[in-house]
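Hey, sorry to bother you again with one of my protein questions. I've been puzzling over a protein and I'd love to understand its fold better. Take your time with it, there's no hurry, and the full record follows here:
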Amino acid sequence: MIKLLISDDSAFMRIAIRKMVGDGAKISVVGEAPNGQVAVQMARELRPDVITMDVEMPVMNGLDAVREIMASAPCPIIMVSSLTERDSATTIKALELGAVDFIAKQSSFVQLDIAKIGQELVEKLRFWGQRKRRVPLGGGAAAFRSPAAAPASAFDMPAAPPRLRRDSQQQSPGLIVVGISTGGPVTLPPFLKAMGALKCPVVIAQHMPPMFTAGLAAHLRIDTGLNVIESSDNLELKPGMVVIAKGGQDVVVRESAPGMLRLFERLNPEAPIHPNANVLFASATRVSCPVIGVVMTGMGSDGLQGSRELIDARGATILAQDPSTCVVDGMPGSVIEAGLATAILSPQDIGRRLARLAGQSMFGTSSSLA
């Protein structure tokens, strides 16, 4: 049975979460905190397996509560955030401080789709509640961001060394596409800082709902000093630009003229999650310049099919994040297991590799890619 602590100043929301986890979910609510200060106390006393944390609360807000809990009683924390610019910015900061995931809800609970949110919440509670028992605690937020300290068997990785593709691409890339999900707000800053400004654009499909990606782009722009922006329809892609696909939307790359790339917002109703890495990667098969695909931390296998299409169509280089450095290793793990990865690297090493590979002119210049 997974022990859950609910922290929310709304009694109505606390009742709603109780109903969401309901019977049959094998989740037991061991405590309810009306503010962050009480949540910190209960986390120390009750030692829950997972906590849901509201963003805005009296006495102590969710951000300060995350900081206190991760310092004194580390535990997987899922933020429950409204779809507002202020709450989204706070949620991103909470993820950096150690919160592992978030659920987005409408500002008014009357508009909340209980069935949809409830299913998503239960899945995340089960995942993170079980993860606590597999990851050694005591290292604060790092215990969840860097699970390398846990036994290798805990992550179901094969005993044999992974099979890597031979890299046949001998030209500098004109475009880099990235798929990332859970753990992205923590992983992207060191990745981008190690990468620096490139002589080609970078487009990132980070699984997020609307309102969150604008705040993420602004945060990354300040943190890294790079030209990080949220996508817009018919956006001209320029060298050195890092584009975060708009939350809840899919993006595709098109070549309007030789060497001139543009980004369009095209929601794919068949895609199970948005922004979708497979949609982005597949669109990159139709440009004339060399493309590099990067698959990083996240649940599920988004990016797997897109990587396969990039390889089949272009023989593209595919870089996968080392599972031992992932918050969740599902996405890169699926690419590695399928034998599609050219290299398996930490976020910083991926950034450094891209800095080397994209260090030449944007189109058609041969390079020694050691």
Q: What stands out?
A: Residues 114-134 form the longest helix (21 residues). The chain has two domains: 2-147, 175-357. Residues 133-156, 360-370 have pLDDT under 50 and may be disordered. The radius of gyration is 21 Å.
